[in-house]
Each structure stands twice: as C-alpha cells, then as structure tokens.
C-alpha cells in the first residue's frame, strides 16, 4: 500500500496519484511531493529509485531492518533512518517502529518497515501546520521528525511514572520482592533500548539544521530547534532514569539486607531468651545432690532464676529494638 501527496505553492493539490507521476511533479520547482511505502521489497523500491535517482546503498538500507538512527548525505538526496517507540505499561517493554526516508530538494519518500508506524499521525501534523507547507520539503521532514521525537518523549514520561511507582514499593511493609526485581529489570531493559534510539537523534536533527545541507529554510529553523530541544531533554531524561533504576535496584538489595538483619536479630534474641530456661532446667536436672535437691525450695529457686533472667534479657533486647 502506498500513499502520495502533492503540494504546489504551499497548497495541497492532489493525493493518491500513481508513483509514476512523481518525477514529473518533482521537476516542477513550485511542487513538493510525498510518497509513502509500507514494508516494500527491493523491486518495489527500484521504480522510485529510478524516478528520483536514489543511491543503491540508501535503497539497501531502506529495505534492511535494524539500521541505526542516522542521516546520510548523498549527491542528490539525504537518507534518514529513525525509530518511533511505543511503551507497553503492562509488560514494561518498549517496542520500536522503524522508518526510513529519502529527502530530495522537492520530494520526501518514507519507507515504513511495518504498518504499526502511525503515518496517519504524521499526516495529521502536516494538516495541522498546513501554513508551513510553503517552506517546501523541510515542512514535511519537520512533521516526520517531530512525530518521532514526540514518541520518544511520551515513552520517557511513561517510564518515569513507572519508576516512581517502583520507588513507592521499596519501603512498603510487605513488598513483593520477586515482582519488584522483575519490574526493575524490565524497565532497565526498556531504558537501554530507548537510549539506543534517542541518543543518535541529537546528531540527526543537528545535521538537518546545518546550513550546508540546504534542506531547512531559514523560516523553518526555529521549528527544528524546538525539536532539537525536545531531543536533548529526552536524552538527558533517559540518562537520569537509567541511573535512577540502578539506584533503585541497589537500594532494594540494601533494604532486603537490612530486613534480613532485623529478622536475624529477632531470632537470635528469642533464642537467647529460650536458652536461659534450657540451661537452668538442664542444671537442675542433674542426678547428683545440689542445694535444694529433693526439696520445694529447689523448684522455686530454679523457677525464679528462669523467669528473672528471661525477663532481664527480654527488657534489654526490647530497649535495643531487637524484638
């Protein structure tokens, strides 16, 4: 499935026209063309490649998956690769949706690796900012990059909320240790994945802002600078959350160790108290004569010693908050 749009003099003039007409429209200096492909094969891209003179290496990168986020420069066009992300709060997993784009002076060709990349959200941004369409292909690139960066920002916000929930669980009276450890690992893994796609976008947007690329008009620079600011914030936020998750994991281990120490103190205290009557009754259980042997005084003496020493130990341990 493919989608097409034609802007002439900053006005949307046509949609869903055949791909064979792209070269005719792109030859018109007053026109800007957008063409979209979803999970195409190399053969399907060949016609567009011939129409726009795309570099074979860029076409190969557009077909192959798992390319790093980047912006490559060729003689006649730029090649952009980026990832929109989606965070699943239930599983704690981060899902990537890859998109590639060929950028010429009058055309934008987007290649989605799957239909889960919401290109309709990009189109909605173009329609919302239709007044910027007069700035040519830079307007289309801005809508695409802005959507991608916004998904990064939404994901890092959702991860931040999940990490705050983990912090609250740390000091609960009856924490679920297994669930907390698993959730911490899942969020840490998602943050590593997010960092892998967010960090390179800083260089991508910065390169688009360079004047020697001739992609962004001067009027569009403030909009790309705003996107660049969002990229920096998302990058710094991701880095801080990675450190915070590591701290939470270490704190969790410390809390568990402290709880274990408390339990050991309690068990040891009660064992010491129980050892008193055991020792006394063991002594008075000797089968040789001793003071009070075979008399009631011996019974009361042993009882007083047992109760007295046990009571003293209980008070001492209680004051030390061991029991």
From TrEMBL:
<keyword id="KW-0813">Transport</keyword>
<keyword id="KW-1133">Transmembrane helix</keyword>
<keyword id="KW-0472">Membrane</keyword>
<dbReference type="Pfam" id="PF01544">
    <property type="entry name" value="CorA"/>
</dbReference>
<feature type="transmembrane region" description="Helical">
    <location>
        <begin position="297"/>
        <end position="317"/>
    </location>
</feature>
<dbReference type="InterPro" id="IPR045861">
    <property type="entry name" value="CorA_cytoplasmic_dom"/>
</dbReference>
<keyword id="KW-1003">Cell membrane</keyword>
<keyword id="KW-0812">Transmembrane</keyword>
<comment type="similarity">
    <text>Belongs to the CorA metal ion transporter (MIT) (TC 1.A.35) family.</text>
</comment>
<feature type="transmembrane region" description="Helical">
    <location>
        <begin position="267"/>
        <end position="285"/>
    </location>
</feature>
<dbReference type="InterPro" id="IPR045863">
    <property type="entry name" value="CorA_TM1_TM2"/>
</dbReference>
<dbReference type="InterPro" id="IPR002523">
    <property type="entry name" value="MgTranspt_CorA/ZnTranspt_ZntB"/>
</dbReference>
<protein>
    <submittedName>
        <fullName>Magnesium transporter CorA family protein</fullName>
    </submittedName>
</protein>
